[in-house]
Amino acid sequence: MFYGTQRTLPDKYRGWAGKKSDPSSGSKTNAEDRSLALRRHAAGTHGSDDSDSEFDADESEASTGSVDAPEIEFHSGQEAFVIDEQALTKSEKTAARLHISDIFRQFVNVPVGKEWPPVDEVRVNPITRQEYSTPDFNFDVKHFHNSALFERIGLRAQQLMANKASWPGSLKRLKKVSDPFVWDLAFTTECAKGSFRSFKRDWRLQQNTAAGGKDKEEKEKRDRRVQRRVVKSTQIAKVIDAVAVDKNDDYVQFLHTATHPEYLSDEVSGPDSDGDEGLEDWVYCLAKIVNLPTDPASLKKTNILEVLVPDWRADEYGDFVHSLEQRYQKKGKGGNTKQYHRVNAGRASKRIPRYAPYNSGIKSDWLDEARGNNELALQVADWGKYEAPVGCEFESLDSA
């Protein structure tokens, strides 16, 4: 069952959104097989209420419980199912928006970790010889240059997402939608605007950074931490299907949402920059904790990452994520992947996710304290509002 819109598929979309069936062929459509029963469950999608927050809060969305959607019959080859905002659960909206954020970066050729170029800098694709577009962060989303760019990115996202194989794992249930279908252009364009607001924060930091200064160094560290969380989330996704083989779709989506990069531990490759501890001393101390050789020759060959556990995350949640990481480790990486020793020395991460996690994954005492802190209250305004789907709990899988 879907919220959504049923519309006639425009001819210009038929080449990639589904081949038109021959109504005279006598084939029958089973409405039950061609609809997807989705029950909404809460997943955090709201950032701060700042005007530059990545995505606007959807106040019309129910925060808890499930909502039955009217069943939609698909008429093969005649009408297309439009995947719009109403067709998605909260966590699916988050997944789609993050996916479109990646498409935005690909479209303008500014990958994660790369600085945003000046809007007047000419950048040319060496293969197609076409000039890359660049957002103008000196203006807002309504500026004609930016609004035109959002429309082009929205259309590009709509075209790329016609291929279900490109969708992230957390949209797995949505893949049951039958052809023909099309992503709503208004939704994909709005997601591009949200990405712009998020990228603008990085651009502002970039403008305030002196070359070689401490701000730039901190930004580079933050980018590396983001990349490590993304890699770790991607690795976990590879074992989710095996873990949830006997589970329902709610549980599969629960796993994907709970292991989103925003909720994972940070991993750092050195001591705090404002501390007195040097890199060699830092490596020595961590190696000693996990009983690795500490002689100088061995330490030079040792690759260590210190795990910073989020201080907001409940212990059960942490054990749950760690057990999924262990499943991936046991599966084996293959190839010539560089091996790292990950060490938890008891240092916490103060980073607060952009999206509120499931209620059962939050330390209640931490949340009470954050709500009483003027600097944090806005960031946790919608925390405590999102229950996990029925039957989905943070239980360690080590014994499974």
Would you kindly provide a written description of the structure presented here, covering whatever features stand out?
This protein is α/β, with parallel strands linked by helices and 400 residues long. It has 2 domains: 1-208, no CATH class; 214-400, no CATH class. The protein is 36% helix and 7% strand. Helix 2 crosses helix 3 (144-160), helix 3 packs across helix 4 (185-207) and helix 5 (214-243) packs across helix 9 (315-331). Mean pLDDT is 76; it is low at 1-77.
Task: List the defining traits of the structure above.
400 residues; alpha/beta; 3-stranded mixed beta sheet; 7 strands; 7% strand; globular; disordered N terminus
What's the quick description here?
With 400 residues, the protein is α/β, with parallel strands linked by helices.
- Helix and strand content put the structural class at alpha/beta
Globular, elongated, flat, extended or rod-shaped: what is the shape? globular
Intertermini distance: 32 Å
Uncertain runs:
1-77
| Mean of residue pLDDT values | 76
Total DSSP helices? 10
Cα-atom radius of gyration: 23 Å
Order of helices and strands: EHEHHEHHHEHHEHEEH
Secondary structure: number of strands: 7
Strand percentage, roughly?
Answer: 5-15%
What profile does the largest beta sheet have? 4 strands, mixed
Query: Number of folding domains?
Result: 2
The helical percent reads 25-40%
